[in-house]
Write a structure and sequence with these properties.
Layout lengths: L8 E5 L4 H12 L3 E6 L2 H13 L3 E6 L5 H15 L4 E4 L14 H26 L4 E6 L12 H24 L3 E8 L5 H8 L3 H14 L8 H12 L10 E4 L7
Parallel strand pairs: 1-2, 1-4, 2-3, 4-5, 5-6, 6-7
Helix pairs in contact: 1-2, 1-8, 3-4, 4-5
The structure holds nicotinamide-adenine-dinucleotide.
């Protein structure tokens, strides 16, 4: 174990499963003090418990990222209890397969609220408490924020919004001299509950065909493991990425290289 995040206070949203869980665990392995936030308090407690059992530092917090008041109380509570907030990873998200002709306005708005507005709320709250001493904000977008996929128009829009919002926030923080870096990460397909549920929502034959075709579209021939995304987030969160802001790191097995 090295200590690339030694003594850094790191908040990870959606930390109770999948990519967020892997980020929390990698951060803790590198000496971070991790706040595992999730709308599902049991899963947040499980991840924090795993980290503590392994000798790391973590606490669980229940949070719905769409709630502006909860953002402010969470961030202020962290600063009050732990002295600062050094890293925020805006990871929480949902993925729903719904082609444009079937999408509803309600479904569209829910997607933008959870995946994109939450990133605005979190980034704004983090800047407020980080601007005295600097920090790193990492926003989890997707390859679906760079290229289109006809099955997920609302998801595409939300992740594209996260991508360009990240650059805007990064430029603002640089211009103000806050020492806050803001970057986005764009995973390809990762073997998490989100992808399993999305494929499970398709008729069985369509789901199987999608999975088979998917592998042919990934040059490395496999989906990612969550820790492979977490390692990239770790780099951006750490001081090793001190000259990176407003950038987008693609981690997709070559999917978008064609
Ligand atoms: N899995 C992939 O292939 C993939 C690819 C690209 C990007 N992503 C992105 O990575 C992020 C994590 O996805 P994952 O695959 O780990 O999914 P996941 O479903 O395994 O985990 C998402 C977590 O977010 C939490 N969450 C959902 N809504 C929330 C809310 N309103 N407030 C707080 N927490 C909430 C869930 O409880 C869950 O713990 C998402 O932003 C997703 O869009 C995933």
């Amino acid at each position: 174990m090295t200590e690339r995040l030694k003594s850094k206070v790191c908040l990870v949203t959606g930390g109770g499963s999948g990519i967020g869980e892997a980020i929390c665990k990698r951060f803790a392995e590198e000496g971070a003090n991790v706040i595992v936030a999730d709308i599902n308090p049991e899963s947040a407690r499980r991840v924090a418990g795993d980290i503590s059992a392994a000798g790391g530092k973590a606490v669980a917090r229940e949070q719905d990222v769409t709630d502006p008041d909860l953002w402010n109380s969470l961030v202020d509570g962290i600063v009050g209890e732990l002295g600062s907030l050094d890293v925020l990873v805006n990871n929480a998200g949902i993925g729903v397969i719904m082609p444009i002709e079937q999408e509803t306005l309600e479904g569209w708005r829910r997607m933008q609220s959870v995946n994109m507005e939450s990133v605005f709320l979190g980034t704004q709250a983090a800047i407020r408490v980080m601007k005295g001493h600097g920090g790193s904000i990492v926003n989890i977008s997707s390859i679906e924020g760079i290229i289109g996929e006809p099955l997920v128009p609302a998801y595409n829009a939300s992740k594209g919004g996260v991508r360009i919002f990240t650059k805007s926030a990064a430029l603002h923080c640089a211009q103000e001299g806050y020492g806050i870096r803001v970057n986005s990460v764009h995973p390809g397909y990762v073997g998490t509950a989100m992808v399993a549920e999305a494929i499970g929502s398709m008729p069985p034959e369509q789901g199987l065909a999608f999975q088979q075709e998917l592998l042919t579209r990934i040059p490395l021939g496999r989906v990612a493991e969550a820790v492979e995304i977490a390692n990239t987030v770790l780099f951006l969160a750490s001081d090793e990425a001190s000259y990176m802001t407003g950038s987008e790191l693609v981690v997709d097995g070559g999917y978008t290289a064609r």
